[in-house]
Amino acid sequence: MNIIYKYIGDRDSYAVIGYEGEPIEVSIPAIYKGKKVSGIATEAFANCNSLLKVTLPNTVTRIGNKAFSECPSLESIIMSNELISIGNRAFFECFKLKEVVLPQSLISIGHRAFLYCKSLSKINIPKNITTIGVWAFAGTKLENIDFDKENKIFHLLSLGKGKVVSNSEVWEPNSITVGSLAYGDIELSNDLETISNSAFDGCSSITSISLPNKLTSISNRLLAGCSQIKEIKIPDGVSSIGNWAFVGCTLLEKITIPNNLLSIGNTSFAYCEYLLQIIIPKSVTEIGLWAFKDCLLLSICCEVLSKPEGWNNDWNLENRPIIWGYKKDI
Is 298 exposed, middle or buried (0-12, 13-18, 19+ CB in 10 A)? Predict the structure, then answer.
């Protein structure tokens, strides 16, 4: 087996760009022709069916896009202690990769970097990580992510009793995006101020969730398709509920709406088939299209005496029973 290199002039170093033969265990040298080996290039080992193990020297700072993508036999990779970035789909569909230890030097993990690494059950997030891409760990067996306590961006994440795995959007400071592998009773840190769109979209195995007290809005599709949740309490500081926020929460029976809520988005409670009652406070000035579509058992209690102008004409498309002028103390 021969490793193929390319000189990178602006770095005065070499990158691995490919191989010849059928490599099984590969140990990349730190030096080639008197220069450092600083990177693994795009698709360097992609689709290498024979590859079982890789060891990277501490001179390597970058792993390129799809560098080890679709290496179905890859079981182990020893990372460089100086690694800065892992590219998009770098380990996509490395089905047998079980554990990865990321170095403290690492700053970014690309989109879908470990997507469909079906055997991956353990990974750490070092203190210097600032970016984790879309679906970075989706389709894995991760039951826990070990976040370094010194990481000032991701330390706000609380895994609680369930499992929380990146799935949807790039994580940003003071926000959280999780994924379709989340399950069980989810408890989120009360320090969280933002939860991204679609954060728990399709999490049909979540049985309960505690939303942070500092939350000010319910994002679009936040809990869409969370079909096992039976009760949700929206924090008092929330002023808006996004489009499709709770669509398809088919077992949802009880929802608590805060008194200062201003708006309810399009189709936000559609297909909540077991929802029995919702109390809409007088503060609500906007309700979107088909907000309660196919809520077959629902009774709607409105504190206002009649429909405000800001409510869509088809907000109650199926004419569910309405009590106007409802008072909570009755």
Answer: buried
